[in-house]
Structures are given as structure tokens and as C-alpha cells.
Amino acid sequence: MKILFLTISTFSNFPSYKRATGEGAALASRGNEVYIALEDVPENRRRFEFEAKGCVPIWIRKGNVIAEAFQKLRAIRRIRPDFVYSLSYSFRNLKYFSFLFPRQTKYTCEVCELFSAYRFMWIFREWLLLLECDRIVAASKLLRDVFEMRAGGVHIKRPILYHPYAYPVRNRKIEQFASSIVFMAYMSRGYGCFTIMEAFKMITDEYPDVTLEMIGRGPEFQEMTKWVQSENLGQRIHLRGYVEEEDIDSYFSKAICFVSPLRNAITERARCPSKLFYYIPYNRPIVTCNIGNPPDILGAHGYYYEPESAVDMSRAMRQAIHDSKTFSYPLSVVEGNTWDARAAELEAWLCSE
Known about the structure:
The protein is 38% helix and 17% strand. It contains 14 helices and 13 strands. 42% of the residues are buried.
């Protein structure tokens, strides 16, 4: 099978790159011919070398929408892949241009959020995606159900695969005497950064040796810094900012538990929190909510709290810390959420009629 992933922007600005590089590398290791079209900037060149073993890069010169689309279309005409896998339905990733693909090339698009839930005009874009694409990959069960319902309502037969994110198999150092609660995400109120800090503050006296490591940047980063200072928690809460992929292990290996917050909203139930899969291979408890994808992935092994409740999150943190030394995921959770497992599933689905 020959497949070309279409991406946009940079790794740090486009989290869905993980699908292209992680699953792409796994597909390549299975003997497939894998190409990834990505913007030609230093960050992408460095990250591609680290994360996309066995894949062939198609370097796209940074420019306007039309220039970028033309470069990608030219690559498709030259490579003639069996499948084009777009990680965003946009002009840059050849929305409306699939009629110019080689005859044998099928257009597959991934949906990772239900944008129409908070941007009304996106409903038209999502309908166009359903009409134009030959296949759809849904990162969550809710997204799969929404698009299946829409397709069935107008009698469109469109293969739709529920296909969440995963993690790459590589050697990881795990500290026996862990001492940190770890959270990695885009730092905004919507992603629960302040709820986490408030919950952690409630348990600081009980666990004087435990720190909170917060990895990532975002619009609330400066306000978070001021909050930490005003609460005199500078020695306990560490705002690390952006951390390179190859350096993440040094923080995750010291985790006593991880946090992956969600809100009780349709947008949250529809998305697949990619960081959840970063955490699994470290075999530590994950504090999250019993909505959307986490219960599908973690089942009875998740530490669930009521969404947006710092008090209930602090309870779940206490339980996770208490259980951490004896905690372990079953093999089905660890092996079933690797990119290798996802690649086998995607390969079989794409090659099916």
C-alpha cells in the first residue's frame, strides 16, 4: 500500500502530526510505502527525523494557500498513492481538489473535533467533507456516530472508522520513587489548567514531597505564573512551558500520576485527548473524567472525577497517589493502544472493499 499524509503548519502548532508520524512510521515498518507532506521549516525537519522512521518526507515551501495546495497536488500526481490521508479538511490539504487526483487515489480525511458544535458555519464544511471524501477516520466514537447518522440520513454509503490516537513503542525510563503529578497540554482555562492547580493546592499539606509539573504553553501561561506566585507555590508547581519531544521522558518518568481533564460539553465528548496515550506506557494512574474517549480506553483503570470540580479532582489525585506504587494496566490496554496496533487496523480497513 502506498499512502501520503497531508499536514499543515508545524509540529508544535498542529498536534495531529502524531497521526502522520506515529502511525506513518508503524505503517512503514509493516512494509508500506509512506509519504508525509509537511512544511519545510527547521522544527519540522528536526521532529520528522526523530518521529517518522521509515517515512519519506515531501517538503512543502511555506507560502500562501494556493501555492501550498499546488505543491501537494503536484506531489500526489508524481507519487500516485493509493490513499491520500488528510489530517485537516482545508484548502491547504486539497479540499475541493480531489477530482484532480489520479484515478486510483482515494481521498481519506480525519475528523478530530466537532467544530460545528461551536462554529455554526462549520456544519456546511463537515457536510462537504462527507460528500467529497471516499473514507472518513473519526478520532472518537461520538464523531463516528455523528457522521454515520448524517450519512445515513441522506443515504450516502461512506466507510467511517473509529480510530483514536496512540503512542509510539520505545524504551522509557520509569523512576521507582516517583514524586510528580504531570499535566501536559495547551495552557488555557478550557483545558483545565487552573482547575488542576487549585486541586493540587488542596493536597499540598498531605503530600509535602509531591510536585506538579505542567508542560506546555498557551494564552493563560502568564496568568498561571502570577497565580502560582500569589499562592506561594513556586517550589511546588513548576510551569515548564514547551518541552521538546525527546525531553518529555525525563518528566514523565518521575510521574506518580497524570492528569487529563475534560469538560462536560459535546466538544469535549467528541475529541480524543491525544496526551492520554502519551501517559499510558508509563503505567501510572491517570486522573480524568468519565466522559468521551477516556472510559473507552481506560475502562475501570481510570481515576475519574466530576468535570470542572477542583474538589473532586483533588479526591481523585489522592486516590491515584495512594494506589500508584501497586498500579498496573492490563496488557490489553498497553499493547492495544500502540501505533503498531492502530496501523494494523488502518491497513486492514483501507485495503478492504
